[in-house]
Automatic annotation (TrEMBL):
InterPro entries to which the protein is assigned, alphabetical: AAA+_ATPase, AAA_lid_NorR, CheY-like_superfamily, Homeodomain-like_sf, HTH_Fis, P-loop_NTPase, Sig_transdc_resp-reg_receiver, Sigma_54_int
4-aspartylphosphate: residues bearing it: 56
Domain (Sigma-54 factor interaction) ranges: 145-374
Annotated PROSITE patterns: RESPONSE_REGULATORY (PS50110), SIGMA54_INTERACT_1 (PS00675), SIGMA54_INTERACT_2 (PS00676), SIGMA54_INTERACT_3 (PS00688), SIGMA54_INTERACT_4 (PS50045)
Protein name in UniProt: Sigma-54 dependent transcriptional regulator
SMART domains referenced in this protein's UniProt entry, alphabetically: AAA (SM00382), REC (SM00448)
Pfam families (UniProt xref): AAA_lid_14 (PF25601), HTH_8 (PF02954), Response_reg (PF00072), Sigma54_activat (PF00158)
Location of the Response regulatory domain: 7-121
CDD domains in alphabetical order: AAA
Entry keyword set: ATP-binding, DNA-binding, Nucleotide-binding, Phosphoprotein, Transcription, Transcription regulation
């Protein structure tokens, strides 16, 4: 007895064939998803559990063979069935090499389709061996995050422990490390995922408006308050309120936040009526709150209320083994978006990405991949990378040079790379030609 309907993804640029396949499969009790292009199929695969892929081969832009190779690499256990109107021996061999489990030639009957689908699903189900869920397998792709480093697994382990309760969480980490992704993972992977998730950047709200935006206000509370209005706390009722850049909250707002955390109640600006709230607070900061406490810029009692659970999100330089996985994720995302195809990166270019120290963390890596995809003609190579990455200094392994000597070595390296072209060298160094001439003299 089937526990649920299998999800089948059908990919074909012929709308009539797509509709026919969907009608046939629905009539034999399968749940279907349709895609008229590989690009659309990839977005469905990203967000949906698919039990069988049915795809045409000859399609514009990205063809079915590329889709087969991609799914064979990223979804190896998912059966793949090919339907095509252009059968050939060579074509059949290429299809099976690309990972397809069966091959169906157009036109075909409903019964032939039913048998092929059942065979593909049963064949793979028979071969599938249940595997124990190791921490690394589980955490390799978590919500919208990805990684397999020890530092990454520590973060996902804490997420697993807090996702189903409403303990207050403080997420710490440098800018660009993905603190909001961690907050979203806590919310959307737990039992409160159907409730609201409200993200607020405290640093983006003017200090004199923070209290009104967070807690709401009543008509006439201040100039411009022409109606009663709920704040972010009321909007997040029953769910999660994510307060990013919590260190920028004013001391007056910090006092109200402390009461909201202690008493589970708030008061709108201009009102005396107390309102009960049932929300989980997740706060985030890239600042050192302990230093701000010393400087009297942050309340110590609020700090300890916020740190019931603390998550330190590691900078990218401390999880460099995750860089290839992140690069692959961004190549898949932006390759399809910008170039309508799946792109690869050369080993040499990837090595440069792994060597770089990434002061801007994952956000900087993502931006660099986007730029490289736009500049590339196919496989991303060193020439497509931003200049900042291509011309990074390899510091000596033994001893240290004075700053003046290090600058001299770097200028020489850039000139060697540009084959003596001073204009190009000045562009890379981001100085004018006169300054470069002075340094050479």
């Amino acid at each position: 007895m089937r526990l649920r309907k299998e999800n089948i993804l059908i990919v074909d640029d012929d709308i009539d064939i797509l509709e026919l396949l969907q009608r046939h499969l629905k009539s034999i009790d399968y749940h279907t998803y349709k895609a008229v292009s590989v690009k659309e199929a990839l977005f469905i695969l990203k967000d949906t559990q698919i039990d069988l892929l049915i795809t045409d081969i000859q399609m514009p832009e990205i063809d079915g063979l590329q889709l087969l190779k991609f799914t064979n690499e990223h979804y190896p256990e998912m059966p793949k069935l090919v339907v095509t109107g252009f059968p050939s021996v060579d074509g059949a061999l290429e299809v099976f090499k690309s990972g397809a489990t069966d091959y169906l030639t157009k036109p075909f009957t409903k019964e032939e389709l039913k048998k092929a689908v059942q065979k593909a699903i049963e064949q793979v189900a028979g071969q599938r061996v249940p595997k124990p869920k190791s921490a690394s397998t589980k955490a390799n792709s978590y919500s919208d995050m990805i990684g397999e480093s020890e530092a990454f697994l520590k973060v996902t382990d804490i997420i697993e422990r807090v996702k189903d309760n409403k303990a207050t969480v403080l997420i710490k980490g440098e800018s660009g490390t993905g603190k909001e992704l961690v907050a979203r993972a806590i919310h959307y992977s737990g039992k409160f995922s159907r409730a609201p998730f409200i993200a607020v950047n405290c640093g983006a709200i003017p200090e004199n408006l923070q209290e009104a935006e967070l807690f709401g206000y009543i008509k006439g509370a201040f100039t411009g308050a022409n109606e009663n209005r709920n704040g972010f706390f009321q909007s997040a009722q029953g769910g999660t309120l994510f307060l990013d850049e919590i260190g920028t909250a004013s001391l007056a707002v910090q006092t109200k936040l402390l009461r909201a955390l202690q008493e589970k109640e708030i008061t709108k600006v201009g009102s005396r009526k107390v309102e009960k709230v049932d929300i989980r607070i997740i706060a985030a900061t890239n600042a050192n709150l302990l230093e701000e406490i010393k400087n009297k810029d942050f309340r110590e009692d609020l700090y300890y209320r916020l740190t019931v659970v603390e998550i330190d999100v590691p900078p990218l330089r401390e999880r460099k083994s995750d860089i290839p996985l992140l690069v692959e994720k961004f190549l898949r995302k932006y390759g399809v978006e910008y170039k309508d195809r799946l792109l690869r990166i050369s080993p040499e270019a990837l090595q440069i990405l792994e060597r770089y120290h990434w002061p801007g963390n994952i956000r900087e890596l993502e931006n660099s991949i986007q730029r490289s995809i736009i500049m590339s003609d196919g496989i991303i190579d060193i020439k497509d990378l931003p200049d900042l990455l291509k011309y990074q200094i390899d510091f000596p392994d033994t001893g240290f040079l004075p700053l003046r000597e290090m600058e001299k070595e770097y200028v020489k390296k850039v000139l060697n790379h540009t084959q003596g072209n001073k204009t190009k060298a000045a562009e890379i160094l981001q100085i004018d030609r006169k300054t470069l001439r002075d340094k050479l003299d």
